[in-house]
Write the structure tokens for this entry.
Amino acid sequence: MELTRRDLLKGAAAATAGAATFRAPSIFVRRLTQTSAQDNTIKVGILHSLSGTIAIIERSLHNAELLAIEEINAKGGVLGKKIEAIVEDPKSEVRFFKEKAEKLILRDKVVAVLGCYTSASRQSVLPVFEKTNSVLLYPTLYEAQECSYNCFYTGAVPNQQLTDFVPWLIKNVGPKFYLIGSNYIYPKETNREVKALLAKHGGQTVAEEYAPLGSTEFSTTINKIRAAKPNVVFSDLVGDSIVAFYKQYKQFGITAKDIPIATPITTEEEIRAMGPENAIGHFTSFNYFQSVKTPQNDRFVKAYKAKYGEDRVTNAVMEAAYFQTYFLAQAIEKLKGNTDPDALIQEGLPGQEFQAPQGKVKIDEKNHHTWLWARIGRANADGQFDILVTSNTWIRPQPWTKVLYPDKDCDFTKVPKGSKSGTITTKT
Amino acid sequence: MIGLTGLSRSQLIIALAVIAGFFVFPLYAGAFRTDQLGLFLCYVMFALSLDLIWGFTGILSLGNAIYFGGGAYFIGLALKLQYAATHATRYGEGAIPDFMTWNGLTEIPRWMRPLRNVWFAAPAGVLAMGFLAFVFGVITFKRHIYGVYCAVITLAESLIFEELIIEKQAYTGGFNGITDYDSYSGSLHFYWVILAVTVFFFWLSRKLTTTHFGMVLRSIRENELRSEFFGFEVANYKIFVFTVAAMMSAVAGGLYAALNGIVSHQDIGPILSIEGVIWVAVGGRGTLIGSMVGAILVKGAQSLLSEQFAWIWDLLVGFMFILIIVLMPDGIMGALLRRARRRRAIAAGRMPAYEAARIEETPTT
């Protein structure tokens, strides 16, 4: 056979393309392996913002999920099939979340989606999941009062963070609370529960205040706090406001010894952003801290740093993102590879247990939420938390917290088939 | 027909072919792409309205999304009230929207009740937005605020409305927006309705801009003072076109809300307003077709690129903008139209080639 010029060119082109693939940054390599994948993979959608205002935290969730998938695949995948991650970037905008969720479900036909961070993004995609009967695993702590047939909530709900925290604060710090939050649903709901717990345990609300989302100017608030002389400032500020508030608090000369800030939302990530000196001594209640001492957590932190950089910190939401990926893999394994959404929702996922970095966790058999541990941490000079209290046992999630809604619950075993809402009233 | 549209025979054929293409698109594409194209058409109408005020009249508005978002909120709220009345939501409550329950409302406020009828809400939204634009227009243009100052004022208006929507969460759903109601996504007929409205708006915009009225608009854009000296009541022209554009935006927003199934504060804020300006700039301002091409091209590129390159797509899109604006300062259609005119001029022997080359350098009007 004679070698023509055209053949040579073709060969050269192929070689260049090959070399380019080999040398190109991992994004291109990932893409190629993705598109070449056949039916011997299990497709899972990853839907977290990689750009925009909430990208910092969402990228960490995305990273944790990819880490879990890599680990699962390294151990041979699920029943011999590799998990294939299909990544979309909804750009911190609600309308893109919906568009990308539709794309993952309808075009890529993923088995399930791991995704969302804010309640706004979750609520924008849930109708899509319900309409197409698909599965969403959602890792964020949130205000609860929601039970969707198509969603599994692996983050904490208020009862898992507050039930021990508020009485502990009353006993160890003092009974007078100043509540401050960002002005939207999560802080408002959290504060309702805090107020109920304060009333129950002999505490007192001196003031309740809401700052516009994203606000970074707190001098008026801090002056008011000074005047009100509370024992505890209970903060549900989110995002950039957290960093600004802690910093200005210190600038005004109030230390944690005078009036500590207590919060269910400030993680290692925000402390890294504000600088540890601004957070020293303030309290956070969470299921997980990077400083938790378990063999699983040592492995998790080490693996995360090895993959993404030594200076990275882990946090509670990404821990949930990490173990929910395992929940999904185990559920598919339990169903012997069956990925029918109804089978996953009714048999695969409920009751699924996993030895997570925070301890053993479990998806509740009835309400689609997750049994988690409760911990109280105090920020130290290294930007980490000294864990002061750990609950004796894992805590059952109450999507409708008993303090506020004694006769409401979520139970998907009791609602009629086909209902998308699992909420029931226990008292008739 | 030709007289009605003001298009030449060949232009009419092209226009009909394009419309036919859009008409049959869903028969070949899946539900996902059809919905997506439906949303793009809503953006096309938004871009058209912006082209009327910016491209033709020279009013740079960074608040056009107020009217788009406003229309969207009217429809979103109407559909949500309807849905809540007949469905217990996943929050276990019924009768009133969930965001009202969260904010301590126990019944729908009296003034909002008429919105339960979507056939009332739709025209009410469009008229309300028209009225709002009229008021803003009078304030701005009667006081001879133009250029950068006009852009700043409209931007501020846009910010105020976004803030209001987030703040008044008991009535608007706040930061979470309005979601979880019956949308028309997946409906072929609704897609065709959107297409029909788009075609109608294009026709309307052409009517407005190719007539004597359009000539006055252009003269205002080129030299406002001189137009005034000629005896034209410039402010009134501006107020009129601003109001018409706002109502077009409101219709587009309403269709968008009905198709998309979510309305959020981002639909009313400055980001969408500015995105609109980019679409018109990329497509070519003052050409109508350009704004439509720009909207579809940029939105399409965003979608396709973000599916392929989830990690760096914003950079790619940004790079594309810069490239287009640098290479074609008048946008895509502007460049094409100029080339076509030059070719025609040479072919007709009206000017030598070296002379024609100068057209490349002077801006189109």
